[in-house]
Amino acid sequence: MSMFSWGAGSRKGLRRSDVVVDSNSGVHFVRPKSKIQDISVGRRIAAFLRGDGNVDYLWSVESSDGKAKPGKLNSLNLKEKIEEIRCGDAHVVLISHGGKVFLMDTTQIPRCMKGLNSEHITQVACGDQHSIALSQGGQLFTWGQNSNGQLGLGKGEPSTMSPQPLKSLAGIPLSQISAGGDHSFVLSLSGAVFGWGKNSAGQLGLGDLSDRPEPVDVSCLSLKKTIFISCGTEHTAILVKDGVVFTCGSGRYGQLGHNSFRDELRPRLVAELWGSKVSQIACGKHHTLALVGSSKIYSFGRGDQGQLGNGQIVNQCVPLSTCALITSVEQRVTKLVAGGNLSFALFDSTQECQKGPAKHKPTIKKREALDEKKIDKWISGCNSSWKRIQSEITAIFSSASSINGSFLETGCDEHYKTSAGYSGLDLSLARIAFEKLSTTKKERRVMMKVSQVVEQHLLPSLSPSPAGVEGLRVYLILPELLRVLLKQHRGTDLAVLLAEAILRLHPDSLKALGMLWSSLSGSFIGAFVTTFRSVCETLLVGIPKRLFGPEALQKVVEVLQRVYEATHRRQVPENMFQIKNIIAQTTLKMLESCPCIFDLEAKYAVFKGTAEKMKASGFSNFWLPAEFELTVRRTELLESVLSQLRSADHHQFRMPLKVKFEEEDGVDIGGVSRAFFKLITNAFSTEGSKTLEIYDDSQCVWFRPDRTICTGTSESLYLGMIFGMALYNLCTVDSTFPQALFKKLLGLKPTLEDLEELSPCQARGLKQLLDEDEDVIDDLYLDFTVKGHDLIQDGGNVLVSKANRKRYVDLYVDYVLNTSVTRQFEDFSKGFDLGCPCRTWTMFRPDELMNALCGEVDYQWEELQKNAIYICTPTDKTVKDFWKVFFEYSDENKKKFLSFVQGTDRLPVGGLAKLRLAVSKLNVTNADERYPQASTCYISLALPNYSTIHTLRKNLTHAINHCEEFGCS
């Protein structure tokens, strides 16, 4: 491999036997006797890595005029074969074949960096007086001067010559590290750029001049597919995959290439190179090089010592081609090198140049990543000892950066689109890989080793605050491993540790992870949920409690709740999260914090138990009555109830409710209360309510707007009390409120879909507005008002347009369901809290609270017969005739029958499957003259021994249509 060199002292040959050809432009063609593998240049030193792994170097000496003069060419005598060299201002860092690091300073005596003895280093970068090293496991180390925060260790940290781990970037899979004068950069596999250190000229590209003592995401480079970064003393050049170059920082000498000498605080595209498909860039102290094609090199910046290679010694602020000597030689430039005031171009031999233009691919050397090929090798065991396989497993699965850099979506460079809502992963590759690992019993030891390393090394090392989305990929990949382990009846312990790691995340990182969960396809989020739910079910058995303690279940369930909150608005079914038979084995605390694992029946059972305990606790307080008794009149139901509620003490609502209808001898053991709540809630909406109005297009009820209500009216307060009392006393209400009411009770904001349930006509018009063309919207002449009410200030003078129609719709919905009924709802909510002192109801979702309070509406009539209890012979003719008549009834008459036997036609939580109708037979002499008897408290039906089915049908139909009073037969 030969080279061109130009700039300060470039005439000096490497050896006397080297062939050196000069040109008038100051560019020298050098054909070394031995192959040059790499070059690195600093202000006072240039180092040359030869093909045999040995290193030569030139140490410059400053003359009286301040210019550096090259010294004698020396060779390093190291036993280790060197693979990489990097030069700082006056020091050289070398990496050996085995990953050891050596440092040579002004003493010119190389010494091993003891602080990195246990690490396998794969990359180094040098600034003027600081250095960065990247290990095979993805850990960054920095050392040297820290005057401007260039070590990235944090504010106030001192300079140090001992390598320090840079923990803030732990877990990010890195492809390149770079350092300039007093600033540093790292580049992730998916193009995320982080910079820190001196920023006096904007060289960090952050839009300001403030130094950064810790790594900061250069967000303006996100999604640009950055593949390489080079740093000068006070400027930075960035190369993206499309061959475009951006520069920022000091432009004093024109080194930014923007046809000016201004500084740039943010990365700016070098327009002169637009469309040129740049493949390599390199920054010297104050100049920049760019390679286009196989041998065309552009240079710009400082040129007083010939470092631009154009035969001139002037500064140049636009990219221009270097001398013709380089492009005239039919060789392929493989690497550009710039440092200090020197420039080099390495190129291939004639035979190698036939391969076409070089493409610069800056990837981590020996970067460990998990892929299908490596897994195939592990399970086959070909040419690999078990000891070596164990070493590889440990190297990969103990490193978060290795895992985060695996299974990338490489098709069309999709992983470069990694962002808050996209992980950049192809999880199908992870699924295939882990399933392969579990294919044969023979290789179970591989999975056991993987699981062991993940538990003991990876999970404890995870940072609670990853620097970016790429650091969160591990939380999407490991559940796929966990899924396979659970199939082998292992992995419960790993699941608990993974849950702990997730819950340790900083709230911002946890929020970002939630966005990634929500972006997953149904298959993968479904597998995640199923896996963690399975772990919960295992923990409920109690076997692993000795390993984790009682907190283990709580942690895994909390992760499920987090996933539920992130995904419940998507296609993930609610029942996927729910665990059966959990009530007796859990706590109220878990239910309140993680309700997603409980179905409605489980939640209702817990609510019922809590409410019953509260009622029972009142008996220990002798100053409280044993029950809250309401005596009401059917003829003046609403007035008689409100008068008693106005005088009730709030302590009374904690006691069991007992309802007594005047002039009726029914005893309330549940049935009378059920009938009462049906009647009273119906009375609110039918007896000229001042609070409610019925929407004609849906027959739903809603609060009247505040402006139509007289000041001081508190009817909605008592309506809320009635609803709260019904829930607390395990009864249902006869209500046609839309789900929006229950959303508001739970603190959730109603949407356009909720308005559609209340008023389909209004919602239909708003949806059409969102879909109309601009011309149609303009012709409507809509303004920002609803029924004369301004939605915004001076809304009558603001017309709805295509640009603001979404805002209009949102404000319209908010006005109807929130703003216009603020006082009414606040009173209702206050009354609800008084009527239901058991706050456990907040665990319900809106639809669940609606079902618990208003009853189920899915009438599976066969379930009533299926679950009936018989206090007689089920095959008796009268009983058989009853069921025949019942199933002949219309749905309306069937509901009347329910009201007859239980006081309401609303179904309890769980539907008719939870209703136990007790059927008995009355053997009386005058049976055909009697009606069937029902006890609403016990939900029982007594049938006289009718002579014919016709008589049974006539008497039962009369009973369900005309018998309303309690105690009448």
From TrEMBL:
One Pfam family matching this protein: HECT
Annotated source species: Alosa alosa
A GO cellular-component term linked to this record: cytoplasm
Superkingdom of the source species: Eukaryota
Name the record gives this protein: HECT domain-containing protein
Residue ranges annotated for the HECT domain, each copy included: 649-969
Segments annotated as RCC repeats: 138-190, 191-242, 243-294, 295-349
Active-site residue numbers: 937 (glycyl thioester intermediate)
Keywords: Repeat, Transferase, Ubl conjugation pathway
Keyword Ligase: no
One of the GO BP terms on file: protein ubiquitination
InterPro entries: HECT_dom, Hect_E3_ubiquitin_ligase, RCC1-like_dom, RCC1/BLIP-II, Reg_chr_condens, Ub-ligase/GTPase-reg
Single GO MF annotation: ubiquitin protein ligase activity
Record bears the keyword Transferase: yes
